[in-house]
Structures
1.
Amino acid sequence: MKDNASAQPASNHVPLYVSAGAIVLLVGCYFLWPAFQNAIREAFDILTSGERPRIAKWVQQFGPWGPIWLILAFIIQMFLVVINVVLLILVAILAYGPWWGSMWSFVGVVVASSVGYGLGHVLGSNFVGAYWARKTRRKW
């Protein structure tokens, strides 16, 4: 009797290609679009400075959209491994203070996790079976 898992299709590299494509797109924008490069450099300089007033002022330029952008960053982080969740939490705490920053970080993590769960629920096990290797599926 054959194992049902062995009847599944071979591994597909679509998730790897999507992640690599997103990274190539971002790198391409960085080198080919001067305004994007300047914005990334400014953000990196400010966010790595560790100066709370400077970070808070930069984040406050987004106004009431700041927390929404932060939550979107948490969602994007879930799909792109190049963004560190600890950095996002640190930015939130430095920009909004320990209480509000922690609250926005918690909301961001919950929303991002809910989006991930929702995608998994909507796409179902057929998607997982078609796009991930059998060994990975067994681990899940």
2.
Amino acid sequence: MGYGIKLRVWGEYACFTRPEMKVERVSYDVMTPSAARGILEAIHWKPAIRWVIDRIHVVNPIRFENIRRNEVESKASSKKKGIYAAEERQQRASMVLRNVQYIIEAHFEMTERRGEEDTPEKHYNIFLRRVRKGQCFHRPYLGCREFPANFELLEDSAGTFTYENVHPGDVDLGYMLLDQTFHMDMKGDTKEVFPHFFRARMVDSVIEVPALADGR
């Protein structure tokens, strides 16, 4: 295992969309491991490292709320000159999470793309420095970009962060998206995307995240 960190994240709204819902957005009950990884990568990521989520603590009670949002039908791309929101606007219902807070436990591993100057100590210290200053490559978000995430590092020197066990016992959350692997073609473009799922269980407010079969 590489260098480990604990990051507390929270926000007013979150939506970790279930992939089986094609039209209306419906969130999973809790943050997915892929969404947690995205938050860490927003703070610090380089080709030399790979973030691995170990466990997710659910700090606040799980609460859903129905809202309606305006979305555009198409996606932005380099082939399109722009998106005319007035012409492509669609109003859709969404079932989102309200007032969320999580603790992400994770570590990173070095990849085959590491250079001679890349060391675990270097990237660990870069991450610590950035998160202490509140720096990020882009604003982390809770599933959807319109739901920004606040974050802070939990350090041993600052004492142990404690929270009430709001979900005691063993809770079966069903199948959840674990992560996605991308297969590239010879040009480096994404050829295929393979989703990976796992049976999520929350024991006393903590979800243990398994490793991908390929060892990620």
3.
Amino acid sequence: MLSRRGFLKGLLGGTLAGFFVGGYAVAEAAWQLRVQNWAVQPPGWRRGQRLRIAMVADLHACGFGMDEGRVAQVVEVANAQGADLIALMGDYRATHKFQRRIVPIDVVAPILAGLRAPLGVYAVTGNHDWWDDPQALARKVGPCHTQLALEAAGIKVLANRAVKLGQGDTAFWLGGTESQSCFQRKNRRDIIGMSDVPGVVAQMSGYDPAILLAHEPDQFVTVPDRVALTLSGHTHGGQVRFGPWAPVVPSRFGQRFDYGHFREGMRDLVVSGGIGCSGLPIRFGVPPEITVVDLS
């Protein structure tokens, strides 16, 4: 039979363990930053054509853990990866309640303008970028303020648009969609998105290979074989992760596209674990990361 002293020791041990795990989760979110590499050979990609992409996903900038200095650090690390192309994957500012200070996109965008890559820096917007813009929500149409701020800083935003990069045997299409979750009613069941995958793919003429930037990986199920690789963020890898399992993934497909490299048929998908936090300012088992994808 468990004694009172034994019970109190167990309670104290559990409490201390809880404080330790909680403190570690906050520290992991606020101070860690790793580079995660994926080597991908999509069936639809031109054999022998090498391309390095650095993904910066889900910054969620705010006064705790992701302030201006931290964003500048992300820019420095991303620039150090020698990427041919840098992709900004949406959700640039935090909208959670645990913020000591708001860091607006008008402050974040000029810092992100310091990113450098030979083929350019391209961005898409995410659901939080729309939710942070009352005027866009009222209009039910873009561009949202985040897009305007990024463009004012010289960053190209692919809002349901495709561009052709490279020349000759190294040419490829780069497309970007809007978020699937731009507008939500209070019960969060009536979700209206602005994503237009068919419209973006229709702009990709000819036979050069194609890459799609889509904030939410759920869009991958609608992507045709015309697109060799889809890049996404949004899930944060679950934000709290125990090995291969994440208790909560913001996707209607659960863990199907939660984090990492996936292949379905002739199509590949890489989902970044992202950098910032949503809901709570914690990460556990999935540190903030810059995701580097090497295609060949």
4.
Amino acid sequence: MSVFFHGSFGLNRSYMAGVLKTLIDSPSSSAEDIAKPFGFKAPFTNRYKAWLQKTGILKGKELTANGEIIFNNDSKLDTLVTQWYMHHQLTKSPINAEAWHFFIKEFLPGKSKFSRDELEQALGVKLMGHSVEHFSKGRPMNKRISRKLLDCYLQDEGLGKLGFLEVRGKNQYNVQQPREILGPWKNIQELSNTY
């Protein structure tokens, strides 16, 4: 399901870079072997492969054309170019990562502030069509997804450096306009030239 592809693992570029490097250097490694240096088991690898796919870097186990440019220029997935690319890929289509698309394209526009409760309620309404049991008001899945969204755009190991959000108080957030917006890129050459 594109709604909960991440499980309990949020977007963490350092973990993603480590998994990606092992996939490139040792493509026959098992998910268990890839996860072991991080102190996790196979689900860790599978979730971070999903993140790499949702952010447009991998297709299956292979680098995409853009993923190859990113890996060759920023194998640690650390630059703002890479972070903006990931953001655009996550949010471009509801089919790819529905909660991320909803958060950036539908929930945030027009807001200057919001609470985590407001986000959870909005996610419940948006996602309830998938499963009333999992996404209706007050369900734990809405809390998990809202936490992963907020962590993604607040924490430096996620996409926090893009500057969409700031903490205003306990479970209260301000919406900000990022200072520098990069992309989206129309083709491989444009992305390559940005590095």
